[in-house]
């Protein structure tokens, strides 16, 4: 009789994954937080304008990826690929960090808190969900409930294609809209009317370097963070080979 792993099949490949109700519950809550914030914004604002923001787009990614991850954890299926969960963390981390350190910071020069329309009620709730709750939730899920060691340096370059594509989208959208249109450019640092294309390019390079550093930092952290073991994790029996 041939042993199950005598043909070179790793033991973890034949051991069934266990259901992970804790991970499923947390991921469901994070996905619902993102979805709630998006729905509120769509209900109180112009859908096309709302969907043009990186904040909303990154939370759409969170709702989709965390929702699928919750279902897979509940069913005992294999986790999503590390590049998908790592990219989701990067995008929502960009959202949270840029908001708190730039857009909500009067000293940054790009603050969006001095507008005539103060955030209150549903808008305030949505703002907190999309900029604070989901970034913290995704970070906790990645740190505590996601197996380490799956990220590669090339993944950082892959992730950065999205911010680059968003830059092209925002500038193209602004160029096609009539001058003076509301939210023609979604963020102050992308406003060509104020900074000109040269200024916006300089801002884009600065933010791009920061995003690149963050992406490579995530990969580096993934390679050194501790491996979580236990029957409740559903991870492989041993850390993946790096």
UniProtKB/TrEMBL annotation:
<feature type="transmembrane region" description="Helical">
    <location>
        <begin position="159"/>
        <end position="176"/>
    </location>
</feature>
<feature type="transmembrane region" description="Helical">
    <location>
        <begin position="129"/>
        <end position="147"/>
    </location>
</feature>
<feature type="transmembrane region" description="Helical">
    <location>
        <begin position="196"/>
        <end position="221"/>
    </location>
</feature>
<protein>
    <recommendedName>
        <fullName>Integral membrane regulator</fullName>
    </recommendedName>
</protein>
<feature type="transmembrane region" description="Helical">
    <location>
        <begin position="24"/>
        <end position="44"/>
    </location>
</feature>
<keyword id="KW-1133">Transmembrane helix</keyword>
<dbReference type="InterPro" id="IPR049713">
    <property type="entry name" value="Pr6Pr-like"/>
</dbReference>
<keyword id="KW-0812">Transmembrane</keyword>
<feature type="transmembrane region" description="Helical">
    <location>
        <begin position="50"/>
        <end position="71"/>
    </location>
</feature>
<keyword id="KW-0472">Membrane</keyword>
<feature type="transmembrane region" description="Helical">
    <location>
        <begin position="83"/>
        <end position="102"/>
    </location>
</feature>
């Amino acid at each position: 009789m041939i042993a199950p792993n005598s043909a070179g099949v790793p033991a973890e490949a034949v051991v069934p994954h266990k259901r992970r109700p804790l991970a499923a519950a947390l991921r469901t809550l994070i996905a619902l937080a993102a979805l709630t914030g998006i729905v509120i914004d769509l209900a109180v604002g112009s859908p096309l304008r709302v969907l043009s923001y990186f904040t909303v787009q990154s939370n759409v990614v969170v709702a989709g990826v965390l929702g699928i991850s919750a279902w897979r954890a509940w069913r005992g299926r294999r986790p999503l690929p590390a590049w998908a969960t790592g990219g989701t963390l990067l995008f929502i981390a960009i959202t949270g960090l840029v908001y708190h350190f730039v857009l909500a910071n009067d000293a940054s020069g790009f603050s969006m808190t001095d507008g005539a329309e103060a955030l209150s009620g549903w808008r305030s709730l949505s703002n907190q969900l999309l900029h604070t709750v989901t970034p913290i939730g995704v970070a906790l899920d990645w740190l505590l409930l996601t197996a380490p060691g799956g990220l590669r340096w090339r993944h950082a370059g892959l992730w950065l294609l999205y911010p680059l594509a968003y830059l092209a989208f925002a500038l193209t959208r602004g160029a096609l809209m009539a001058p003076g249109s509301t939210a023609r450019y979604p963020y102050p640092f992308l406003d060509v009317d104020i900074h000109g294309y040269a200024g916006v390019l300089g801002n884009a390079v600065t933010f791009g370097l920061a995003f690149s550093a963050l992406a490579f930092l995530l990969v580096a952290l993934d390679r050194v963070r501790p491996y979580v073991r236990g029957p409740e994790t559903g991870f492989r029996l041993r850390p993946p080979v790096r």
